Amino acid sequence: MPDILSLLSIVFLPVLITVILAYGIWKKVPIYDVFIKGAKDGLKTSVEILPFLLGIFLAIGALTSSGAMGFLQEATSPFFEKLGIPEELISLILLRPVSGSGSLVVAQQIMEAAGPDSFAGRAASVMVGSCETVFYVLALYFGVTSVKKMRHAFLAGMAGYVAGVMASVYLCHIM
Q: How far is the C-alpha of 15 from the C-alpha of 23, rounded, in Å?
């Protein structure tokens, strides 16, 4: 089975490109011109997204380097303790709605400190896999599309996030 998957991973992209080119030739599409137009549109999108990404990354850097994240973790630990959530998970819970990559680093730190088979390691894994980066999604997608009124999307996103965190902790408690 691993040999088949290895072979598939090697030939997938060349086969996909060949199929796309063959289909374009069959439909008499100017393939190179369409490719260049798509590349230009992709670069425009990248330039439009860049300010929102920079803002998010600067905010995360300011939160962590200023000590605000540590302060938030200390301030909220009694609340999370009453919910049965260990202190190791608080930084992940606070960071996950803002940054996917930052929360992956925190999850890795949790697993290195507590172990991947510990309650905190399992709950961190489930949270990373099931909880969305709400602020990142809102800032990026709503910013690029110029949508100004996002209050319902924010409330729905945060409700889903809280439900995901609570479900992660609950499921890891019972399993």
A: 12
Report CA-CA distances (Å) from 36 to 28, 30, 31, 48, 119. 16, 10, 9, 18, 50
Tokens coding 125: 């894994």
Q: Which residue type does 109 have?
A: Q
Distance CA 1, CA 164 (A): 34
Which of 92, 157, 150, 95 is CA-nearest to residue 121? 92
pLDDT digits 0-9 by tens, 44-68: 988 887 887 787 778 777 877 888 8
Q: How far apart are the first and last CA of the chain?
A: 30
- Its pTM surpasses 0.70: no
CA atoms of 107 and 97, how far apart (whole Å) = 14
**CA neighbor of 140 nearest in space, from 61, 42, 46, 52:** 52
